[in-house]
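Students often ask why we bother encoding 3D structure as a string. The short answer is that it lets us treat folding as translation between two languages. Here is a chain of 1709 residues written in the first language.
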Amino acid sequence: MEDIINGEKMEDGDVYDTYADIEDEIIDYDGELDLDSEGEEEEDNETIFSEPNYPANAEEKISWQEQIRMIHLRSHLNELDEKVQSCTYTTEKTREELKKCQNQIEQLEKERDNTFTQIENAEASNNTAAVYRLRSVHDRLCRELEDEEELKENIEKRLEQTEYELWKAEVEKGKFLLAEDELKYKEQQLFREKTDHAIRRLNKEEKSAIQAEGKLKKLDKQQTEMMIEQRQRHKLAMEESRKSHQRASKYLTATLVKLKKEEQDKHSDYKADMQRKIDMLLKLKKDIVSNRENMKAIKARDRAQEREKKIREELERQRILQEGGNADELMLIKKRKNEFEKQKQKFEADQKLKQADIMKKVLSEESRMEKRKREQSYLWSETKKDKEKFVPVHKKKPLKCLEDFSRAALESAGLAGSGDFQQADKTQGMSYSINVKYEDEERDDDEDDVDDEFGQKAVYLSSEPTIVQPPDSSDSETDDVQEDAVSLAKPEFEGLWDTHKPYHVPKDMDTQIKLPGASKMEKDIMMKVLDKHRDGITIKQVAAGREFTGCPFYSKPDIIHFKNFDVGQTYKKKVTLTNVSYTVNYCKYVSITEKLKDFIKIDFDPPGQMSAGLTCDMMVTFKPMINEDLVGQVNFLSQTGPFSIPLRCSTKKCDVQVDTNLADFGVTVIGETLKRTVTLTNKGAMATKFDFFKVTGMKHGTCTTAETSLGRLTSDTMRALSPDSSDQKLSDPKQKIESLEKIAEISPELSSPTGGLDVAGTVNGGSKVGDDISPRQPDSDEYHKPPEPEPSPEFAFSEMEDYGTVDGMKVGSVVSGEIKAFSSIKLEIIWQPTVPGAVDSEFLISFSDPLSEGISIHSVAKAIDVPVWVERQNVDLKICMFDRLYQDTIVVNNRATTALRLKFEVCKDLENHLELLPKTGYIQAQSQFSAQLKFLPRPSLLKESCKYFDKETGVLEAPMTIRVADQTQPVTFTVCAVVTNSDIEFDVSNIDFGFSTIYESVKKSIKVTNKSILPQQFGFLGLPEHVEVQPNDGFGTLLPLETIDLDVIFSPDKARDYKFDLVCKSLINRDFKIHCKGVGVHPPLELSHQVVNFAATSVYDVSTAALHVINSHTSSNEFTHPVPRIGKGEIAPVGPTSFEFVLPSDCPLTISPSVGTVMPGKKCRVQIRFSPKLKEEAVRKEAVKMAVKQMEAQAQREYDEAVRKEVELQEQAQIAAMKKAPKGKSSPKGKGKASAGTTGTTSSTLQKPKPVVAPEPDTITTDSSAYSEAIGSLLRQFKGKFETYTIPCYIGSGSCGDPGSLPYSINNTIYVEVHCPTIKPPVVILSDSGRNTINFGEVSIGQSVSRSVTMQNISNKTVELNSSLLDTDGPFLMLNALRVLPPGGTHTAVLSFAPNKGCVFQEVLSINSMTALLSMTLIGKGVSPIVNLSLESDVLDMGAVLATEYCERTFKIHNTSSLSIDYVIKLDSLSLLRHAKSQHLPAFIKRDKKNKSYVGTQNNNGQNVFDLVPSEGTIPAGGTKEVTVTFAPDHGSEHYSDGVRIELFGQEESHFFELLGIAKNHIMYMYGGDELTPDIESLAVTPVLDDDEDFKLPPKPILVSLFSITKDNEFTTASREIFVACVRTMAVSQKKNGEFQFENIQTLQAKGFNMEPQRGMIEAGTKKSIMLTWTPPPGHEPNQTMEASVLVTLKGDVTEQYRVMLRGMVVSE
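And here it is in the second language, the structure alphabet:
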């Protein structure tokens, strides 16, 4: 499921690259998984993203339950995969271990055979020392071989087990193959649903953003208007204030006088007030002094009362202690009772006050309500009407769980018709329930705390059923109880926090229902029915077709175990129960084991309904009262059945054991003393006493006190206890007890009541065997018994010596004591033989704990007898060096009673190296003799052929002999040593450092080897100042045969020749020399920094650093300052000096400038740029993998599509065949076979996708998606690296000229060392396959296009993102803010491109993540949009229509640009600025055509008179959009007009034209002539005339002015046109055509006026022109005006008259 959410690749290779951007944006926007998207409505699909093309067939949406199931299934499949991988890894690892073990066995067998051959050779050469050594090696090899064989068997068994687990895991995984395929399909479907949902939400957000932008513009406009208005108000206020100041200046003097008087009055009042305060403070001071004395007296009285109270409490405490009670507990109870009484009194007082306040509020509320009823009686309706409308309150039905079940059970048992039962049910109205009664519910919290602390519980379970009384019951006791229960201390409405009570489990044995009036048989039947009901409580849980089996809840811990408890203490454990069933389950605590109820308390609140995976807590409290182990269980009941949790309580116990049961001393010479230690460990939690004593050879006196006699054992008893008796070898405690019983049978005195030993091994006094042996162990005080009489120390010592001398075995100083819990004690067994022979003894450790059995320890040893012997048979001199003297002392012992003569002999081969002094000596009787051993190994030992010295290993084994007089067998011992040399060797003897500048150092590495097998300390002493040896300044320690590398660093300080020696001294004062030489060079130029350290730079990031090249050579005088030269060569000339930096190949560094010239005394700045990148070869190699994956996915998709089409074709063919089957005569069987044959042939033609051929790395282009994905993949895998580059700078004297013409010396070369750490970038780009170039493409000017860039934090730290500033005047803008990214988190940045001119834009946006910069290149091109209108002019005349009717006209908008254009058509009448523009003077007043208002008369009904559809839309490139203009006036007017503006992309206005229209009330009208009225409709109310047949409307006037021009004393004819039109109406009943007629035109003709035509008919929707002419009559005075009028009658739906007024005037040219 995580793969789907994060947009990553699925396991089957399906890649969701197409919607990666969308999905990343979904995750960043939503922030959480939206599981309920079924009910959302679909929004418009206008978005910058194109919707994905999904199949047309509809799929059901995945529900949230299905999604949860998919998540669990994916988790289970991942667990199976991990299990298979883990088992595979374990199997392979076990096989490797088995192979290594077999190889080790073969090697050990070879070594064993070789050792056996060497033993045979040594025996043949009679080399005894080598034989012993080789035999020990042979034994060791045999033991190792046996161990390896045993290890091999264990590994083979483990291998079989791991292979079985692997097969088992693979089989389990195979069961889910089909489920996994289905899951993948569901996940793809879920991904598509999420993508659709995200696109819809994105569209919605885009619309919201557009609306918000409009609101913001409106707000800016309002703010601007408010600023202007505020300035005007401020200006008016300033003028008003100036005028007010002038008016108020007259009254200023009087006002100042008045104010001064008021200030004086205030000052006098202030003085009086201050005097009054001073008097009050003085009085307060006196009161404080008097009250202080009173307080002192009160405090003294309180202290006296407190002392008396303490004295009384102490006397009370003493009295309680004398009576044997617990004083602290009783005093605490008394103290808390007193506190409780005080609190109770305080609570009662507060309760009374609160009751009074409540009653006061209630009375005031009642009075206020009465007042409102009197004043506003209409708010309260009548009572009768309320009763009629009253709906009775719905009675809450009682719980019918048990009642209905009981009724149904009784009916099934045959008691449904029982009259008694029905009568009782009807009359009494009883309901049966099992209640838990809580007593003393009104107690305070403090009293509850006291009860809880001392274990007093106030909750009891009622064992009798409760009978609920009916409401009309007349029981007085119940009423009294209810009245007493009313308490105003409790709130009227309780919250959830007040009603919670701890859960208590009802006892099943007490929940018996009593049926009043029922017989015994009826009760039995009722109980059987209830038992049957309880058995049916549990149900089976089936989910996804599988039935849940097993324990439904998992407990943590699995077993509730209270370990090592103490009686009286309280222990608590928290247990967590987890629902592990398939679906919802319930959990109910039932009971606990009966014997645990007195000690265990369960606190468990039933959680109710629990979903799968949820947990609940349970607290188990254990307070032990008895000291014994307890075992039981806690029983629960769930929906799927009962389950239980084991519970154990274990006491403290002892767990004692020893580290070994065998003490083997080996072969020992008589007189030696050896010790073996046995560790006794107690792993239990309880301490115990122990006794450590010897069983074999134990005497009677060792088990009794000092008063018991020592010689009461008979010879038979001694024989039975003798160490030689084979029957007395005890191997376990049972045998020890049997031996003790045998001793008791043989010697009755041992079991006597006075001091014998019982069968259990204890003394009759209650102490263990061996208690009297140790006088240092006192008795414990816990037994409260007087101590037993202890033996004297002298006698105890004699006893120990007595039983220890039987066979030389005895116990050490610790013979008894107490071993504490979780501790250990070391016990010693001493072996001091006095008689030669083998000894086998038994020791016993007994314990006071009755549950701990005794521990037996077996001890074996062998003693031999030699009169003269040496203490050390093997004298080991360790490792010795040549030419060094080593000494040791040889101690010889004599156990004989006479003095003996000794002669020391050294083998002849070692006489030059070994020496024993003196050669001869005498050793006194029973004394010691010391001889001096000197060993001086010489280098000649390597050349001599000595059989005791191994030249390869350097091991020396020299047998030494001591000859004893009168003794045939000599005493031999061996001197062992390992001889080595002390040489330190260098791999070179001479070091030539060559030429080195004084600003740098030359390093040479040498190898130092220690030829000795001893570590040697060394150091280089007396080094010159210009030489150092590292590390550790040339001091250190060489391990045996170790070779280390040392660096000799040569740093010359001046230009000259150097020769010197390096001296290395060892700790034994040996010298080793190395000869060195070198030449110092002073170059003409120097660098300001020799080492440049770049900060950690991420891949594809850039870091820069700078240094200076300095020319400090200004003088050639070598006596005043150092001059540039090579050694003692010529001085470099003074003048311009050139340099050149040469970078190594494949270096991510650039130097600018790399070549330059520096004048003397000047310096040149050089900048170094570090830009690490991935290697091209690695990127192309990874790109091949990515391309192969893409090709495979594409081939698989094509194959799936072909299969789908083939299946569809086959299905269509089958359907067609089935339709044709009834018509044909062939049998259906044949047709079926034929169709099957065709299906087989067509399916066989499809082949599976062929293997993809990987492309060549060179064929992959850098702009391909595979190349970008390869870079992203390598960046995620990048682990960081650190590289160092040494860049040479060549120097030549002179200025730069032609390449190769400037002379230079290679010895003058200086170097700069650059440290370049490269790290993985913390943030990478996920969208667009990881490309960091965002191309917006071509965008129209004024249009804004957004692109989203998704970034991910691939580091393991939280990253805070910051961005660089984009050009504020540029077209690029980041729309959302950056935020802090957690590890693995993603963030989607939205960038917009809004060009303001037609050109190409490019900017670089840097995302700073504190440690690295992520650069993104933004590219876009602005294009100017061009559209054309099909209108011929800027005015669109809609003509005339009847009022309340409409007409339509169309025009086209053509897009001639290469982009799709969004247009919006806006009307001036709907503009927000219409009111502001209408505030200007009308055009007919100021005659200004510039600020013309295009908005004319509008409809009175509020609707637009002009409407354009569609008013907005998108015109594709080269497309055309047709717009329909509708003119629908609601009243008659000739001044309908509006302005139309066409805006592109909501910003740029491209075209404007004016709409005109005329509305008439009748179909006939006349227009033309001069303007008589303004073009603005009057706001005056037109009077409504009454309908009267005699009333006629006056004719409408039309003025026509005719101007005749005089020319050559002649008058020209003036002419003008007027028009008569007929409106086309939509009404069917009205007349369609009209007529007109001019009346009485004769008078006009006399004045020179004429008109044509004078009458006519006009069709609907047309107009007719009437030509008016005027020719001045003869004799007309030019200065006079000729006027005349004529009536025109228009006949249409109504008859109207127009008066045409003619005016003729003569004008000149």
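Translate back mentally: The two ends are 95 Å apart (CA to CA). Keep this in mind for the problem set.
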